[in-house]
Amino acid sequence: MLMERDFVEYVAKSLVDEPDNVEVNVIEGEKSTILELRVAADDIGKVIGKNGRIAKAVRTLLNATASKTGKRVVLEILD
């Protein structure tokens, strides 16, 4: 799941004003992996996007890459 973590971190750092505050925590389970994304309070809107479009796009790409491993990947954006 290192590839997925790196992907989320790269995308988040590209979107936010404070890339040093981007933090991705990985929680491994048997059938799924949870990626917790934390960014600065001012940058949450930039990661989510209008009507959640950016978050949805990132989740779609994550699920596409994770389908190769047969595991489910969940992205949680924490505030």
Automatic annotation (TrEMBL):
- Name the major location: cytoplasm
What molecular function does GO assign, one term? RNA binding
Recite the UniProt keywords alphabetically: Cell shape, Cell wall biogenesis/degradation, Chaperone, Cytoplasm, RNA-binding
The yes or no answer to whether the keyword Glycoprotein is present is: no
Q: Where in the cell is it found?
A: Cytoplasm
- Claim: Cytoplasm is one of the keywords in the record: yes
Q: Which GO terms describe its cellular component?
A: cytoplasm
- Domain of life, per UniProt, equals Bacteria
Q: Which Pfam families does the record match to this protein?
A: KH_KhpA-B
Concerning PROSITE patterns, the annotation shows:
KH_TYPE_1
GO biological process terms, semicolon-separated: cell wall organization; peptidoglycan biosynthetic process; regulation of cell shape
UniProt-recorded name of the protein: RNA-binding protein KhpA
Instruction: State which gene encodes it.
Output: khpA
